[in-house]
Every structure is written in C-alpha cells, then in structure tokens.
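#data-curation
PF: Archiving a pair of folding outputs for the training set. Convention for this channel: one message per protein, sequence first, structure tokens after, nothing in between. First:
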Amino acid sequence: MRHRQLAVSGAHAFDPEVFRDERGDFASPYQETAFVAAVGRPLFPVAQVSRNVSRRGVVRGIHYTLTPPGTAKYVYCGGGRALDLVVDLRVGSPTFARWDAVELSADGGGAVYVPPGVGHAFVALEDRTVVHYLLSAEYRVANELRLSVFDEEIGLRLPDVPVILSEPDRAAPTLGEAAADGLLPRYVS
C-alpha cells in the first residue's frame, strides 16, 4: 500500500494495490501494517461505520466535531468518484487553515485518514457516488459543527460542477466566525 502525508498535519492518504482480472477487481482500503507505518499507531477502535450516496455536485462539509471529544475518520469511496478535502481547524497547529485534496474512487480503492479537529468535506464527481466512513465515535448531533466551503480565508478550490448543498451547509459560518465564537478545536501534538 502506498501512503503519503497530506498538507494537513496528521492527515494521510492511502492507495492500496488493486488486483484486477476478468471477474473485476479487489482492493483493501485499510491495512493495519501500512497505517501503523504511516501514523505510528493502529487505527482507532471503530465506534460507527457510515455511508452516504450522493448525486454529482453534492458537497458535504466542511464538517468537524466538538473537540473534545473529537472524532477521527477513515474515509473511502465505494462507488463513483469524490474529491475528498481535509482542512486543519486546530488552533495552534503548524498547518492551521491549510487544506489538501485527494480524489477517491471505487476503482482506485484509496482512503484518507482525518484526525480529530480536522475538518472534512467532499464533492461527488459522479452520480451515485458512495462514500464510507469508519468513525472513532458514534455520531452525536450535539457535537456536529460545520464551516462554509466557500470561506475565502480557507480558499478551497472546488471542481467546476453545479454545487448542491444542504441548508445547514449553506448557512455554515466562516473560519473567522467560528474562531470568534470559540468553536475551533485546539491543537494537541
């Protein structure tokens, strides 16, 4: 499995070998040995596995959780293609407000590790894009936070597709507003 550190401190992208033959293909988006070599410890105990199916142009995020408790994510694409985005929201982090993007696809089998305090978003690049999440904590609506994907201070470069957002994502605050309200997590090295 190939691995690379993303521009956001603690976030990593993983690309497994894909085995193809006349039947189709096989890949393992998570391999503990590769994860430990990259991150220095095993993946968190999985508290919840979630998935969503999105139309082309759907943007989900930038989402993060109150930290503490914080939630880590291991994300992969089970169908279609998605541009996966991670944004460092941790005040005091050496990569604060920096972001990085990885294209995930069912064909490629790649995955992204998102540590607690790092925001996550994705853009569905095809209809019926399926994104799976392994989560370190169960979803709690009271812990859910979000930022605007259009925040100029963050400066995400979204693909040129008609954007579809949920009402809460359309109304999400900017990084500056979240900081002023004390809603950004602190960096812990």
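PF: Second:
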Amino acid sequence: MEATNTLDMMEQPIKVLLVDDHEMVRIGLAAVLNTEDGIEVVGEASNGMEGIRLAQAYKPDVVLMDLVMEGMDGVETTRRLLELYPDCKVIVLTSYLDDSKMYPVIEAGAFSYLLKTSRANEIADAIRAAARGQSVLEQQVAAKMMNRFRQPKADAVRPAHEQLTEREMDVLKCVAKGQSNQEIAETLFIGIKTVKFHVTNIFAKLGVDDRTQAAIYAHKQGLAD
C-alpha cells in the first residue's frame, strides 16, 4: 500500500497558475501547457490580487508571473504570494529585460526568469525544473546578472538602508512608529513570522542591535512618516 501511495504522489501533475493581464497570452499558455506531460494549468488570473486569491484556492506548485499589470505589479504580487506560500515557485514570464524590473522581482523571491519570446517547450522545461527545485534564467538575464556582479561593489559608500527591500522598508517605517510585531503584521497584512524575519534582516543590514536603534536610524535618515 505504501508503494502505491508513493507512486500516486510521483504521478501528480505540477499545478500551474497563470498570472497575466493579457487574455490571449493566458489562453495560449494554457492551451500549450495542458498538452505537456505532468503539467496542469489550474487557474488563470488577470491581475495580482486575483492571482493571490486563486493561489489561496488552488495551492499551485508553480506560478507563471507577468511583471507589468494594472494595480499590483508582478514584483509586489511575487513578494506577497511568497510571504503566504514560501514553497511556491514563481517563474517570471515577461517581455521586459531592464534592470528596474528584473532585479526587484528576483530580490522579491522569483525562482526563474524567462522572456515571452521563449519557446513553449522551454517554458514547460522551466516549470518542471522549478518543481525539482532548479532555477532557470533566460540567457540574456544570466548575462546581465553576471555583468552586475562583476562591477565594483559600492555598498561601502551607500547608505545602509539602500540595501533594504521595499517590504523591509515598510516594516522599518512601522518600527519607527513604535509598532509591535503584531501591529506591523496587521498593518501590512502579513504573518507574524514574516515580520520577525524582516525585522531580523533590517537589524543586520542597518548594523543595529534593537528596535530603538532602528527607529532612531529611520528618523535620522528621514525615512519615518
């Protein structure tokens, strides 16, 4: 009986959620991916909020995420989605290759980054790789990242808070207001464990030891509301 259950688990298809504001893109992706062995498109969302709602309903293994959408963009959607479901793998599928979009979504936790010029089999292979825990980067994306890391680091002359992610900055502002972890969780609609994780990262990046020092830093830098 145990062997049968293991076999059944292995044969479960990879559940994929599509998040893209172009209906024809979603229709085309769903049609192609549903013909691939071991892959099942379980939902389609036209914006970030709908994507989060469908993720709560379907618990996808992989999310194909567009970046530029009305309302909540792909970066924020990725961040919030992974706060709720850290085991989910987000594959960015976009037409954009500029740094202002690529690096923020990778920092937000995107697992792979593909361009919409990718062939159907390449997207399917990236989905299977993500399910195995393997990241896939478009060749042009990998080249840009390598070039970025080859550049001299300027962190030593940059203000410490520039190392914070957008969400960490939100948490820091709440800390500066004197909010507790519970109050921050309620303000930002995130879990208490996520708040503690961000606070720990903030302390490390700012080089402070406690909330008081973090709050003082925020006020001195003009970061507090």
